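Lecture notes, unit on protein representations.

Consider one protein chain, 266 amino acids long.
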Amino acid sequence: MLRALDITVAFGAKCVLDRVSLRVAPGTLVGILGPNGSGKTTLLRVLAGTLAPHTGQVTLDGQSLSRLDRRAVARRVAVVPQDTHLAFDYTVMEVALMGRYPHLGPFEVEGPADLAAAADALKATGTLNLSERAYQTLSGGEKQRVVIAAALSQLDRRSAPEDRSSPLLVLDEPTAALDLRYQVEVAALIGRLHSASVTAGTPLTVVLSTHDLHFASAVCHTVILLSEGRVVAQGSPADVLTVDALSTVYGISPELAAPLLPRVHA
């Protein structure tokens, strides 16, 4: 589905990604881990097509992402950033409807199908009861679920039911800045959304970055470990998140890394 080949990104003299290659199979959940400054967010931006690499290329179903129509990509790929700041006091329903923009023509307003897509997305994330609430009045966990709902609304295919390609949801540290309760809720939500999509016959592909080793181990099929812009390891959580790998990448002793493993492999 999604492939990156020899991706290099530099900002000035600093190389942020150095010849990164990876493959994301359709319907899988992939976690990108690494310390601060390892290139996680930059890699997500490149994979989503919002940042062009200096060298290398990203392909979606064999086609170069840079050559695809941006609105067509937006109907297939939705991004949930770390922080969402809105300029106006939108309601929850209005935020969910923002996801419908790639499905609308110039100056076209949302119709019944768009309202239904937004409502279904809010229902899927457990926030439909908040639809008339002002987004800014919500808790951190509620806001995150609403932003995920907007992404699901964006990926809703009811305007093109013949399209059976796997939609791609990209999340940048979805549990960051949340307390433990909301971290657990968001992790469980991502798992439920994926399971429901498989049952519906259009498996959702998820690529996310995180610092939470337990979250990655519990949710992801594949994890990619980054260090200084390079892929150190990729594979199953059990294969990648080892004492040696964690101590090397995070710069901690094996004695400090070892206690993390029961959480990782729980």
